[in-house]
Structures are given as C-alpha cells and as structure tokens.
Design brief:
The chain is α/β, with parallel strands linked by helices. The chain is built from 13 helices and 20 strands. It binds NADP nicotinamide-adenine-dinucleotide phosphate.
Length: 489
C-alpha cells in the first residue's frame, strides 16, 4: 500500500465525511498527530461545506471574523469585521493548502452507506459511484446545517418560474428587474433580502414569524488593521476581546441580566430608528422572547423592507401556483423567481447516509426521537464513529470554530488510545450517553429556547441542536477523553 495515492486507496485509517470547517480542522488534527492515512470525502465539487453551499448574494458570517479563523491559522487578511462568504471560502482553501490537506481530498464523492464490521473493527463504506472503502475510524463532519429544507407548501413543484433554495444557489439566474418572492425571514433571508431588493422590480418577503434584529457592529478592515493583525500579541488580544464580548452576550439568554436588558433596548431602538412606518414596525415585532431563535445582526435588513419596491407579506401562505404565490386571503402575487430561505433539516442529521452499527441498528433508527450523543462527539452502539458539531453542540452566541477545535483534539485522542494499545475499537457506554443527555435536557428545560419553534428543537420539542452553557464549560468538558466512558476491544 505504501506509496499508493490516497485517492486510490481502498483501506485507510480514517475517513472524514465532509470538507467544511470541521472536516478541515479534523484533517489538520490528524496530521498533527502523525496520522497521515486519511481521506476527506466531500460530495460537492469543492471544499468549503456550508460556505460552498451558501453562495447566495450577501452571504457573510455573523460573528466577528477574528473569531472565525482557527487558532492555529490566524487570518490577518480579513477585509471586514463580518467577513463575506467568498473571503471565508478563500481562507478555507488556504488552510487546506498550507496544512497539506489537498492530497487527502476526494471531491464529488458521496457516502451512501457505512456499516461497522465488528470482527475487523472497521467501517465498510459504500460510495456514490458504487466503489468501496474501508476505514478504521469514521468521522462525520457534515454539520447540522447541510441538508437544505424546502417548505412543505402545496403547489411548490408546479411553480413555472425559477425556484431557488438559499443553500443551493444558482448564480446564473438573472435577478435584475424581476419579480421575486422570498419565503422565510431568518438569518439567511436577512442577508439576501437587501441585495435582492436592490435588483428586483418587485420583491415580496413572506414572513411567518418576525425575528429579533440587532445592529451589526461592522466596519471595513483597513491596511493598518491588517498590518496590526500580523503582530501575534495584537491578534491574540483582538481574538480574546471578541471571545469575551460574545461570552458576555450569552448572558443575554437569561432573564433579568444586564446583557439581556441591553440587547432588548438595542433591538427596540434599532427597529424604531430604521422603520418609521408604524404599521410595518408592528409587523416586525417578534412574538417570542429574544434569543429563542437565532438573533439576526443586520444594518440593512430593515431599511431594505422600507423600499418602495419591497413588500413584507404577513398574511399566511396559502399555496403556490405555476405563476406565483397565493396567500390565505386569496391574493395572488405573480413571481418570476421564488427564493426559499427556509433553512435546514436539523433533526434528521445524516439522514442521506445509512450508518449501521454492529447490532444492525442505523443511526436514523437510534435517533428516531431526535439525535443524541455524548458531548456531540460519540454515540453508544456506534464504535469508532466520531461526529463533529454533533447533537447539542451548536451555539447561539459565538463562533462554532471554538467548538470544532477541541472536538477534533478529543476525537484524535480517542483514536490514539485505540492505536497505542493495539486494540480494534472503542465504544461509548450506553449509560454514559444516557446520563449525559438526561443532565443536558434537565438543564435545557427552563431555557429561553423552549419558548418558540425553531431549528434548535425537534417536532416533539426536545432541544437537540444547542449546547446550553458557556464556551469555556464545553471546552473544559472535552479537554481530554475519560477513557472510563468507553469500552475497548
Ligand atoms: P431558519 O433560521 O430555520 O429560518 C427559516 C425561515 O423560513 C424562518 O423564517 C421560517 O419561519 C421560514 N419558513 C420555513 N418554512 C416555512 C413555511 N412552510 N412557510 C413560511 N415560512 C417558512 O433558516 P436560516 O435563515 O437559513 O438560518 C439557519 C441557521 O443558519 C441560522 O440560525 C444560523 O445559525 C445559520 N446561518 C448563519 C449565517 C452566518 O453566520 N452567516 C447566515 C445564515 C444562516 P418560522 O420562523 O416561522 O419557522
């Protein structure tokens, strides 16, 4: 096998699924641990994950960019504090190049099925082209926001104009001078509505629930900022500053805190300053407590809604026809382009892949009542499997990269424990996972996130996406694996 290209190998030590932020971080962690025998399987034609998928106009990160770079790969080149998608894509490509990940990358490669072969202690993988691959460890780094969700609205397939999902954008579709409808008013819609409003002849924004919008404290980074960012103490200070600001913001999710009072006041001021029309302002008042859904940070969303060519429609959607959209009151709006900014399926994680453990149970079956894991990383019944950004590791207040890095270290430490002892597999104890999830759910029970419907929760109301605490707490909890939580064979 030695000398054979990683592209041709049929048996590897680690198969990593997905080449987004978490897949790349995993690749770097593996290389640092001296494990070079791995592949990064990516179904798209390029790396980038969510940033590859979400190329709608206006896409940018909603945390300050100094926190949206890995600690081991600072980026002094950011052009703005809230970096745009193409910049982030370029950063990820640089990380992949500079950390020697490109030879490991297999693009346009879809994993269809994974089955654990217990006697061999290896995952048997079936790929989209019918070929097979074996790997001792499987890392699923597809993230919670990779499966685009189309709305379940009557007539959607019959629409004769162009139908776009924000996470499957087709930049070739002409938008200038056209009649455009946008369904959804979440983080994504708030980013794409302003640029669409500038081009469209008419833009109708269909809102089911108004969201909380706070000002985005954005600014361009100038040459002097970029020069300073090259000085390690300045870069470290800037990162630490934003880390603590956002952790402080986490307090805003709790009633009665100073942070919450400040955020409520800022949101009220933002709305009253940016929207003068009292009727429109009323339509934009959120009907749920701040923080229950992801907070939107935007300076141009409200102004876009006040443009003469833009209409905010709050009448519920009735059905879609070949020529447009009919609201419940019977009014039809003719559309050339229908944009669904309707988010992601976050409750059926990994549903496009059949992952089968040694007992014959698939992950989908094990997760019938919603996904669960141990610190979002390992799942009882699925040996040698690691998840990146798995259940209950999402964050509503800070950068996911702060969670990804320790997750990669934890997974690699587990792999090393198996390898260094000459063992075949490690398997999470079922009782450990159960106790962990009971404690997690008890803690989430009284939280702000229980007070509305969102992608953080399953249909039954269980919160499966979010980590309930502060970042430091999570990072400390997974600093190093407690091997007593696992059975080794
Ligand atoms: P989302 O937050 O799930 O929002 C989906 C929107 O579509 C909501 O307004 C929802 O209304 C609406 N919707 C869904 N089905 C509908 C239907 N059948 N009829 C009418 N309206 C419907 O999705 P998202 O905006 O794509 O954001 C998802 C997450 O991605 C964010 O929370 C954030 O974590 C991440 N994100 C990050 C960035 C960034 O950092 N740059 C940018 C975008 C997104 P309801 O509220 O009534 O359900």
């Amino acid at each position: 096998m030695a000398g054979m290209s990683l592209q041709d190998r049929a048996d590897v030590e680690v198969a990593v699924l997905g080449a987004g932020m978490s897949g790349l971080c995993m690749g770097v962690a593996l290389r640092r641990a001296g494990i070079d025998d791995f592949v990064l399987l990516e179904q798209s034609a390029g790396l980038g994950g969510t940033w590859w998928d979400n190329r709608y106009p206006g896409a940018h990160v909603d945390v300050p960019a100094p926190l949206y770079a890995f600690s081991f790969a600072p980026n002094p080149n950011w052009q703005r504090r809230f970096a745009a998608a193409p910049e982030i894509q370029a950063y990820m490509e640089r990380v992949a190049r500079e950390h020697g990940l490109l030879p490991h990358l297999r693009l346009r490669t879809r994993l269809v099925r994974a089955q654990f072969d217990e006697p061999q202690g290896r995952w048997e993988l079936e790929l989209g082209d019918g070929s097979r691959l074996r790997a001792r460890f499987l890392v699923c780094s597809t993230g919670p926001l990779s499966q685009a969700r189309w709305p379940d609205i009557e007539g959607l397939p019959d629409f004769a104009g162009v139908r776009l999902h924000s996470a499957r954008w087709d930049a070739r579709v002409p938008l200038a001078g056209r009649r455009i409808g946008v369904i959804g008013t979440g983080s994504t819609a708030s980013q794409l509505v302003p640029p669409l409003a500038e081009q469209a002849a008419r833009l109708h924004v269909f809102q089911r629930t108004a969201n909380w919008v706070l000002p985005r404290i954005d600014r361009p980074y100038h040459a002097v900022d970029r020069l300073l960012a090259r000085l390690p103490p300045v870069a470290a200070l800037t990162r630490a500053f934003w880390y603590h600001v956002l952790e402080w913001g986490r307090r805003g999710f709790e009633e009665g805190t100073l942070a919450r009072r400040g955020m409520l006041r800022a949101a009220a001021l933002h709305l009253s300053r940016q929207v003068r029309d009292p009727l429109l302002r009323e339509k934009l008042r959120p009907p749920y407590p701040l923080g229950c859904k992801r907070i939107i940070y935007s300076n141009d969303y409200y102004p876009a809604l006040t443009r003469p060519n833009v209409e905010l429609v709050t009448e519920p959607i009735g059905r879609i026809t070949p020529s447009g959209l009919v609201t419940a009151d019977g009014v039809e709006r003719a559309l050339d382009v229908l944009v669904c900014a309707t988010g992601f399926d976050t409750t059926h994680l990994l549903s496009s892949v059949e992952v089968r453990g040694p007992a014959g149970l698939t992950l989908a079956q094990a997760w019938r009542d919603g996904p669960q894991a141990f610190h979002g990383l390992t799942v009882a019944g699925f040996p040698n499997l690691f998840l990146m950004l798995g259940p209950n590791t999402g964050t509503g207040h800070t950068s996911t990269l702060l969670y990804i890095e320790p997750q990669a270290r934890y997974a690699v430490a587990c792999m090393q424990a198996v390898r260094s002892r000459g063992l075949r597999q490690l398997a999470l104890k079922a009782g450990v996972m159960q106790a962990h999830n009971e404690a997690l759910q008890a803690r989430l029970a009284g939280s702000v996130w229980t007070q509305c419907r969102s992608w953080y929760r399953t249909e039954s109301g269980r919160i499966t996406a979010l980590w309930p605490g502060f970042t430091r707490e999570y990072v400390q909890a997974i600093e190093r694996p407690d091997l007593a939580d696992y059975e080794f064979r």
